Known about the structure:
Elements: H1 9-26, H2 31-71
Helix pairs in contact: 1-2
Amino acid sequence: xxxxxxxxAGHKREEEDEECENKGNEEEEDEExxxxxxxxxxxxRKTKKTNKKIKMEKAKKKxxxxxxxxxx
Length: 72
């Protein structure tokens, strides 16, 4: 058995951080602009987290329905 691959929330967050850094490096006009970029990246992370939670809830409901169908 091999070790699990490094795919998870931490790995994805590193990729998002790199994307945010790249955006910041491309446009270094004002300090305010950099702050706006940071806020945008933070908002993106929050929406991704909420979307992930919604998907998990849907998956749980689906599993419960499958379990019910098996018991009947």
